[in-house]
Amino acid sequence: METTSVKPQFSEAAKAEIERICKQYPPERRKSALLPVLHIAQAEFGGWVSPEVQDLVAEVIGIKPIEVYEVSSFYTMFNLKPVGKHVLEICRTGPCMLRGSDELTAHLERITGAKVNGATSPDGLFTLKEVECLAACGFAPIVQVREKYYEQLDTPAAVDAMLTELRNQVHRPALPWEETGLSNALANN
Ligand code: FES
């Protein structure tokens, strides 16, 4: 049976925010808005940017799709596949590794059932990603979840406290730009 896919659309609030950002640049430099627009797209569409969503980003900015793909596939903060409710970005660079990021990763895999850089946890809550230095080496080992840093995760108790906090989170915290009216549209992502 033939399936028809529905083209994704930004909410009105997201469109307004995107236009506000694009207007900060000369018309011929709208591409400069690409990173913040990709962040909005990722937040609007369930935490990841599908090829269709990236095409939409290209359309609203007025650039070629390939220009979006180049950027989204370069930065680790953009997810190109479906993810769990919480994406845990685990720093694996030197200082965090010396302070136990390998053990932290193994512990997280064991507790959640997710695989680092692989399958999301069976309950759909957690995706584990390895990333490079998060610029908080003095508080290693570090995990970033959206805009929040969880620091000094070198004990099982600290890791368990983080997971409990995330499990109890009904809605994710608002992002700064959501305070301009996007919170309703994004509340359930
Ligand atoms: S090495 Fe992990 S935050 Fe810098």
UniProtKB/TrEMBL annotation:
<comment type="similarity">
    <text>Belongs to the complex I 24 kDa subunit family.</text>
</comment>
<keyword id="KW-0408">Iron</keyword>
<keyword id="KW-0411">Iron-sulfur</keyword>
<keyword id="KW-0479">Metal-binding</keyword>
<dbReference type="InterPro" id="IPR036249">
    <property type="entry name" value="Thioredoxin-like_sf"/>
</dbReference>
<dbReference type="InterPro" id="IPR042128">
    <property type="entry name" value="NuoE_dom"/>
</dbReference>
<dbReference type="Pfam" id="PF01257">
    <property type="entry name" value="2Fe-2S_thioredx"/>
</dbReference>
<dbReference type="InterPro" id="IPR041921">
    <property type="entry name" value="NuoE_N"/>
</dbReference>
<dbReference type="InterPro" id="IPR002023">
    <property type="entry name" value="NuoE-like"/>
</dbReference>
<protein>
    <submittedName>
        <fullName>NAD(P)H-dependent oxidoreductase subunit E</fullName>
    </submittedName>
</protein>
<keyword id="KW-0001">2Fe-2S</keyword>
